[in-house]
Amino acid sequence: MAGLKIVNVVGARPNFMKVAPLWEAMRAYPGIEPLVVHTGQHYDHKMSQLFFDHLGLPKPDVYLGVGSGGHGEQTGKIMIAFERTVKEAAPDIVLVVGDVNSTIACGLVAVKLGVKLVHVEAGLRSYDRTMPEEVNRVLTDQISDYLFTTERSAHDNLRREGIPDERIFFTGNVMIDSLLKHRDKAARSPVLEDLGLRAKGYVLVTLHRPSNVDDRDVLAGLLEVLAAIATRLPVVFPIHPRTRAKLGEFRLDRGLQRLPDLKLVDPLGYLDFLKCMDNARLVLTDSGGIQEETTVLGVPCVTARENTERPVTVTEGTNVLAGRDPERILAEANRVIDGRGKIGRRPELWDGRAAGRIVKVLWDREGRGAPGGTD
Ligand code: UD1
């Protein structure tokens, strides 16, 4: 009989690489019973199943299958389904990661049922409440019992919001655990040959934030930047389903297909994408996690956003915040292509062992002494 039952929640693509090392670290404790619940927020094969395969995550114990919808509808559906799951599974702890709608939805359900809530990647703040993720982060942190942070700035943010110090633990970055574990395996992926790319001879792009892709003029401006970059180096652009839908809706997709050095491809699996990042001359993105991954890989990153909730990637890493003005983004991209990209260093505790530190804290405080908790 396990001493500590932990439900680990995954919902969207950026959750899978965070939960994989946590699940593995939990399995090393005979007294912990880790379960994986997938809300189904992301459901396309290339946004979900492929990541389970590459990361060695088990088939989820429970799949809620909620799918897409407006924020209210999606969050509500997750809550209804997850409440049933928690009642049936009766865990001691619900663990959520990151800042997606599944994070806040499952967090709320847990605390209302009196189950302890753990938030991994707590305390990040863009101070931009128009970002849905910012609202998810602030609210999840307010209701969590354990808050595990990835950088020191997060602790200051949490303190300002009145979170007691005893709940906050600076343990490092679980997403980097996955990256370091899989980097060698990713190096064997044939993706560069398949896409006709040379190491350090291309630019990798991802864009999916509503603020960049939901407005026709903004998206058209970004595509002009990509077309200008593609006159210098091939550009590979794995397209998120949201962005693909917007390109079609705004009729911006046709012109793009005529640019031979702008390669629009489907979302890539974890290992292929990691290889593409590792070998890119430049990564241009609006993602949160990619800012961190490029910093660890030592690859220059230009972020097409006005702010970042991950300031350590700018102060210590390879990241440059370029805002949303196309001219500025192009200028920053050209600087990197000309060989004047930032050189950074790896932030503190981004060493591949964050998950072990987190699980040790949970076991020491919640597992030891519980029925079945022997040491
Ligand atoms: C979500 C997260 C975002 C994260 C991103 C990573 C929230 C609020 N946002 O954004 O923080 O950076 O995931 O990918 O949780 N779709 C599909 N197939 C899928 C998933 C989505 O076609 O498997 C399409 C649907 O049209 C859907 C749209 O993409 O309506 C947006 O999906 P959603 O989960 O609402 O948000 P993301 O933009 O993916």
Explain this structure.
The protein has 375 residues and is an alpha/beta fold. It folds into 2 domains: 186 residues, 3-Layer(aba) Sandwich (Rossmann fold); 154 residues, Rossmann fold (3-Layer(aba) Sandwich), CATH 3.40.50.2000. Helices cover 47% and strands 15% of the residues. The chain has 17 helices and 13 strands. The strands form 2 sheets. It has a 7-stranded parallel β-sheet, sandwiched between helices. The chain starts with a strand and ends in an 8-residue tail after the last helix. The mean pLDDT is 96. It binds uridine-diphosphate-N-acetylglucosamine.
Report low-confidence residues grouped into runs of 5 or more: none
H-E order: EHEHEHEHEHEHEHHEHHEHHEHEHEHEHH
The chain-level structural class is alpha/beta
- Rg computed from alpha carbons, rounded to a whole number of angstroms: 20 Å
Secondary structure layout:
Elements: E1 4-10, H1 13-27, E2 32-38, H2 49-55, E3 62-63, H3 71-89, E4 93-97, H4 101-112, E5 116-120, H5 132-143, E6 146-149, H6 152-160, E7 168-170, H7 174-187, H8 191-195, E8 203-206, H9 210-213, H10 216-230, E9 235-238, H11 241-249, H12 253-257, E10 262-265, H13 270-278, E11 282-285, H14 289-297, E12 301-303, H15 312-315, E13 319-321, H16 326-340, H17 354-367
This protein binds uridine-diphosphate-N-acetylglucosamine.
Which features would summarize this protein structure in a list?
375 residues, alpha/beta, Rossmann fold, binds uridine-diphosphate-N-acetylglucosamine
Summarize it.
The chain is α/β, with parallel strands linked by helices and 375 residues long. The protein has helices at 13-27, 49-55, 71-89, 101-112, 132-143, 152-160, 174-187, 191-195, 210-213, 216-230, 241-249, 253-257, 270-278, 289-297, 312-315, 326-340, 354-367, and strands spanning 4-10, 32-38, 62-63, 93-97, 116-120, 146-149, 168-170, 203-206, 235-238, 262-265, 282-285, 301-303, 319-321.
